[in-house]
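Please review this one:
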Amino acid sequence: MTADSPERPVVPPPGISLTQDLVALTIREKPDLGPEPGWTHLTEAELDALAEEYRAESHGEPLWIFAYGSLIWKPDFDAVAHRRGTAYGWHRSFCLKMTRWRGSPEQPGLMMALERGGRCDGVIYRLREEDRHAQIRRVLHREIRFRENVSMARWVPVHTAEGKVKALTFWAGPRGERIASKLPLDEVAHILARACGHVGSCAEYLFNTVRHLEEFGIRDRNLWRLQELVAEEIRAIHCEAA
């Protein structure tokens, strides 16, 4: 599975309220405004050093990436195996405020991170061995290519049917003024139904995550309720505009 693989046909899970037609109503042309204010790109040398650090920390063992959101449906590495897995003590949360990518300064969006508490069912992917450094570098560039985000990568224990493994994951335990923790689901839905940036909308992000989790037999209770609420919000917005 590679980042260049063709997108699979969109087949929403049975009973899903948030459809591709509703998602299409949230997509708007937006300019690329560059990185979030105050963020600075890692240099090529810094990315290489960081990739080497994580390569060394894997101690020659298979290196697994724990995916719980967009890395499931849009990875930027070459995987040779995957398994369902559970990270205990963490849960998905739309808590990262974004004014770029899938949000804008006028209508900030929310992206997912892992916050403390509960459990998170996701998928672990094993990186290809022969160019491990390059594979790690690719995923670091995608996930934390800014100096301010370096601390957002961490190792977590993930439980699988084949046993427990140590996996690298991203945006676990974020802190700071950009974090909006414990928002009510209806407030999150209000934001996701409206926010859009140059790479797409927050509703699109939610839709892709829910349908790909379902392909692995994972139904996150909060995300499932959230997609219902976002669908209702989108319908309400367009009824008002009609």
